């Protein structure tokens, strides 16, 4: 299931072209993800993108797949990784929407950037005691988006379900231990 995470975006003021730059994925930096049932910490490991082909990622506005993309890798958007994270540099088309987005980012009206990705259950771990999700392997980076508000409730639907399941199993395990101890105490008496 697609997940969305947020970062910042900026313009390249040295160029005459409409160019947006950003770092949508930051490695090894704990981030708080808010859900309807609380929050948890998430960390994307440095090697989570190793071996991943980033040749079909699009730059969108507000995750809207019905709009024409502002850019697409590798033709109009460069994507690369380093020790800090995943970076992008997109050359926007000369369209009304692209000019509007560029102007809003340049003025600081739009500062949010999200990314949509998929991650299998085998690609991440959740520690119920520390409420920390560690993403070890991202299956696909679907898109980057320029957004008004970078925090979306639907950003972690899969994670919430997985985390809630892990916490329920942990509570069931603790209750089973209590019940077993009660049985053992009865047998001793």
From TrEMBL:
<dbReference type="InterPro" id="IPR054613">
    <property type="entry name" value="Peptidase_S78_dom"/>
</dbReference>
<keyword id="KW-0175">Coiled coil</keyword>
<feature type="coiled-coil region">
    <location>
        <begin position="156"/>
        <end position="183"/>
    </location>
</feature>
<keyword id="KW-0645">Protease</keyword>
<dbReference type="Pfam" id="PF04586">
    <property type="entry name" value="Peptidase_S78"/>
</dbReference>
<feature type="domain" description="Prohead serine protease">
    <location>
        <begin position="9"/>
        <end position="164"/>
    </location>
</feature>
<protein>
    <submittedName>
        <fullName>HK97 family phage prohead protease</fullName>
    </submittedName>
</protein>
<dbReference type="InterPro" id="IPR006433">
    <property type="entry name" value="Prohead_protease"/>
</dbReference>
<dbReference type="GO" id="GO:0008233">
    <property type="term" value="F:peptidase activity"/>
</dbReference>
<keyword id="KW-1188">Viral release from host cell</keyword>
<dbReference type="GO" id="GO:0006508">
    <property type="term" value="P:proteolysis"/>
</dbReference>
<keyword id="KW-0378">Hydrolase</keyword>
């Amino acid at each position: 299931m697609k997940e969305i995470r947020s970062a910042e975006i900026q313009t390249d003021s040295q160029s005459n072209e409409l160019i947006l730059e950003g770092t949508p994925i930051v490695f090894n930096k704990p981030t708080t993800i808010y859900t309807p049932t609380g929050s948890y910490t998430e960390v994307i490991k440095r090697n989570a993108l190793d071996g991943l082909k980033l040749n079909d990622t699009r730059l969108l506005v507000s995750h809207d797949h019905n709009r024409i993309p502002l850019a697409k890798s590798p033709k109009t958007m460069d994507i690369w990784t380093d020790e800090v994270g995943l970076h992008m540099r997109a050359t926007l088309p000369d369209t009304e929407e692209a000019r509007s987005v560029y102007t809003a980012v340049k003025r600081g009206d739009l500062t949010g950037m999200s990314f949509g990705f998929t991650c299998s259950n085998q690609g991440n771990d959740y520690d119920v005691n520390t409420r920390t999700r560690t993403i070890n392997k991202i299956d696909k980076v679907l898109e980057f988006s320029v957004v008004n508000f970078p925090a979306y409730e639907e950003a972690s639907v899969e994670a919430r379900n997985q985390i809630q399941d892990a916490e329920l199993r942990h509570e069931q395990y603790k209750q089973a231990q209590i019940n077993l101890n009660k049985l053992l105490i009865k047998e001793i008496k």
